[in-house]
Amino acid sequence: MKPSVFITCQNFPCKDVRQDQFRVPGVDLDPNQVRVALISESAAENPADDYYAAGNPLFAQTTLLAFQDAGITVNSIQDLLDRGVYLTTAVKCAKTAYGIETATINECSWLLEQELNLFPNVVAFLLMGDSAIKALNAIARRSGQARVIPAGSTYKIRSGEFCFRNARAFPSYLQAGPSFFIEKSKRKMIAQDIAAAMALI
Question: What fold is seen in the domain 19-198?
Fold first, then answer.
């Protein structure tokens, strides 16, 4: 099954993203084997940097480093898939500025919800950054639940225990892209969150 076959945007209403850079993972996988869903911010500005791009894409490089920091022996995105880890983004288009408007995250959360519905056996959601946290909260609110992750700085709330659809939700920091190399103070926390999620498999 390829998620990209099932997830499409009909009208592209968002104004602060590049609609010509709309991407949903086209990786072929068994949805029943997915146990951890890692959700980062948005599609890469350059398609060659996305998780599942050919070669040595930037998102794959930094994500593999993050899992290695957590003590998980992986050398490729396929290794992560084999361990039941699915990688995706909260916003399916590339962003045009540093931040992404809340309205855009809310709009794209409809697509993320459809995507997550494809995976019935997820035990952990790794929410890598504010966009992923906002997107999951938007999905929860639409279903009549309270927000999954409370308001507050990530470093203050990440030690809490949060659940969504009978799975744990881990608020963390963005691991995809160049900021991972710069913000070394966050790498340890990212590694801890990944290790905690992987321990549930």
Answer: Uracil-DNA Glycosylase, subunit E (3.40.470)
